[in-house]
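RECORD TYPE: inverse folding
INPUT: structure tokens
STRUCTURE:
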């Protein structure tokens, strides 16, 4: 107690005038006012020089409570505690109100530090602030090394989208190289995908579209584990509808072909001609090939559509543009009265089936007209000349008209 008494000298000097006044007046009895002190031995015994606290260990929680000597007239619990010199072991801190030094040490070694206990200036203490200081020593032992924590990935943002019928692979990753066992502990992978228990690679060919949440777990033999909640989005196959037969197309006739995409992310970038070329006069706009062809021929091209997640699908086009339907000028051979004839009219171009008709007549008596073949046939009954207007139409409703002249000669006279 010699050290504690020495530290109270300043307090006693302040109390002497008050004691003297009390003795002279002889009217009051004043109890000795004590500032108290820091209790030694609880929890830190006195080693003759310092107060030595119980050892701590790196990585293990540590807690001790400094206590005051409970001497009247101060009330227990009114003191406050403060670090006034040096420092605590890293990871520990002092609560000023309770006097508790606690935390989890992060470094090994020996630390010496001064703690001050302050008493308040109130009626049941000395009427003025008083303090007591002690030096403590605390040793932190190295402890058993804590193995690093296992953390697995990837993050959800790094999981690629999958497509039905297309090979998929997602390697799981970990911060440690130790041998691990991988499995799915919650949810389920998309049908067609499995996880390799040794490598953590999720792979296969998904067969069903949808969103599939699951949780992956990795475990090391020493008991360390980590889990990762992920989900895989599987899209339907991106398709660009292929036509069994492309529509008829004719020079100068309005043409339109709508290409239809489905599957994928269902959000598509503009369609584009990726190879070949459209027939002159046609353009591709938002998946629609339209316009008026200006040149006859066969044109091969590929249109590609891309969805918002990078999938692509192609349409392989092969458009044949036929020449414009026309009836060329032609001179018909003459017919002879009562002699059977068949005269076929000529046409060029046109799309699909072509039909003929007599737009303006009449025909010679005994002559008929075949609308399918565009032929005059029969046995004319009398000679003469007939101007007949014929019209032709194809499946695209393109029409062409022309006037032809039918000449019927008299029958040759027989010699007697």
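DESIGNED SEQUENCE:
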């Amino acid at each position: 107690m010699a050290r504690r008494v020495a530290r109270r000298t300043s307090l006693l000097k302040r109390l002497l005038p008050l004691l003297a006044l009390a003795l002279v007046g002889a009217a009051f009895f004043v109890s000795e006012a004590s500032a108290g002190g820091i209790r030694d031995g609880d929890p830190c015994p006195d080693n003759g020089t310092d107060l030595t606290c119980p050892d701590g260990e790196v990585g293990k929680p540590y807690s001790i409570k400094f206590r005051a000597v409970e001497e009247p007239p101060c009330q227990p619990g009114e003191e406050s505690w403060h670090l006034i010199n040096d420092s605590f072991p890293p990871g520990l801190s002092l609560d000023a109100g309770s006097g508790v030094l606690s935390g989890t040490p992060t470094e090994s070694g020996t630390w010496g530090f001064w703690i001050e206990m302050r008493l308040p200036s109130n009626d049941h203490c000395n009427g003025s602030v008083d303090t007591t200081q002690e030096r403590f020593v605390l040793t932190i032992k190295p402890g058993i090394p804590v193995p690093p924590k296992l953390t697995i990935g990837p993050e959800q943002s790094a999981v690629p989208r999958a497509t039905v019928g297309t090979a998929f692979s997602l390697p799981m990753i970990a911060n440690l190289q130790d041998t691990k066992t991988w499995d799915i502990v919650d949810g389920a992978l998309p049908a067609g995908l499995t996880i390799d228990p040794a490598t953590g690679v999720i792979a296969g060919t998904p067969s069903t579209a949808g969103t599939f949440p699951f949780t992956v777990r990795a475990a090391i033999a020493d008991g360390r584990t980590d889990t990762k909640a992920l989900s895989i989005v599987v899209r339907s196959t991106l398709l660009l509808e292929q036509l069994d037969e492309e529509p008829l197309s004719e020079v100068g006739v309005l043409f339109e072909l709508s290409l239809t995409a489905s599957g994928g992310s269902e959000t598509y970038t503009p369609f584009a001609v990726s190879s070949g070329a459209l027939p002159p006069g046609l353009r591709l706009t938002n998946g629609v090939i339209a316009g008026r062809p200006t040149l006859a021929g066969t044109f091969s091209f590929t249109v590609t559509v891309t969805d918002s997640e990078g999938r692509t699908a192609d349409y392989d086009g092969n458009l044949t543009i036929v020449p414009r339907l026309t009836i060329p000028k032609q001179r018909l051979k003459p017919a002879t009265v009562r002699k059977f004839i068949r005269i076929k009219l000529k046409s060029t171009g046109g799309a699909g089936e072509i039909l003929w008709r007599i737009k303006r007549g009449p025909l010679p008596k005994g002559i008929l007209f075949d609308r399918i073949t565009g032929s005059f046939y029969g046995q004319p009954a009398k000679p003469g000349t007939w101007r007949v207007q014929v019209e032709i139409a194809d499946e695209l409703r393109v029409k062409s008209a022309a006037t032809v002249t039918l000449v019927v000669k008299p029958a040759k006279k027989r010699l007697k």
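NOTES: Confidence is low (pLDDT under 50) at residues 1-35.
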